[in-house]
Amino acid sequence: MVTPTVFEAAHKGDLEFVMSKVDENPELIQQTDSTKRMLIHWAVLSGNLKLVTYLIELKSPINPVDDTNTNPLILASSAGHTEIVKFILERCDDVNHKNAQGHSSLQYAASKGWLEICQLLLDKGADINIADERGSTPLHRAASKGNLAIVKLLLEHKDQLRINNKDIYGNTALHLACEEDRQDIAVLLAENGADIESKNRDNQTCLDFCTLKLFKLLKKFVS
Question: Which helix (H) or strand (E) element contains residue 11?
Fold first, then answer.
């Protein structure tokens, strides 16, 4: 049987194994693997809050970056580990950090459908309009993926939300909702001020993406 590395053990959430190795060599807390990830990165991914707490109590950095500029908060937000997100946010305010592709914690949570995590991040001051390298915002992500509850949450912040923001292709969140036939979301966006006639880079409005049923639902919003 092959003995796992301490990083593999952290990824599995094996608290006892990690503790035994760190007891032998306390410097492991600060070391990185071939991806420049520390034990804290892998512990966060495991979802084991006790392991994360143990590492932080031993003075592990709480939000270091790996070779893709991804930090533990982004990993926890993407994986849906709500309690670990809470733990990090209580100790760190780097809520708008982006990885190498420009993805933030809020973007991942919105894309994956993690409603409570989105709320936690917004309460901590996450930029509701934060965009990745393709110009995609949390609203783009949630609308495209069909995450209605998260779209509703984002719309609760209408004073901040730029509902008609465009990605690099000129698509708004409404364009993407129509393209994916997310009918409830498309209608909700239209009801809250999304521009039906906004054109993308190919001179298409959202109506150009609609099924016949969705076209009829949205047509009434055209001025």
Answer: helix 6-12
